[in-house]
Amino acid sequence: MPVLARFYGIVIRMLFSKALPARFHAFYGGEEVVVEVFPLRIVGGSVPPPVADRIFEWARLHRRELLDAWQHCRVAQRPLPITA
Fold it and tell me: Can you spell out the DSSP letters for the chain?
């Protein structure tokens, strides 16, 4: 899973699946959440609420880039890093 961004100890990665809508994985301190891009929501895992808030804030700011990254993955291209 390529790393898209790192901020505040959070690592954002993306793994493409044809069967699923655009989503990314956020890792923090040994915990992981899977976040759907549209609508923006956690669909798996858990992190502390303040960490989830930071992930959502970052994702709202970078939604277009996340969708672009998903499209890169869809055609087997490495997605571009996203500035945190």
Answer: --EEEEETTEEEE----TTS-SEEEEEETTEEEEEETTTTEEEEE---HHHHHHHHHHHHHTHHHHHHHHHHHHTT-PPPP---
Residue 16: per-residue pLDDT? 84
Q: Quote the percentage of the chain above a pLDDT of 70.
A: 100
Distance CA 40, CA 62 (A): 11
- Please give the Cα distance from 51 to 58 (Å, whole number): 11
pLDDT over 90 percentage in the chain: 79
Determine if the pTM surpasses 0.90: yes
Backbone angles phi, psi at 14, to 5 degrees: -135, 135
How many CA atoms lie within 13 Å of 41's alpha carbon, on the beta-carbon side?
4
CB-hemisphere CA count at 13 Å for 78?
6
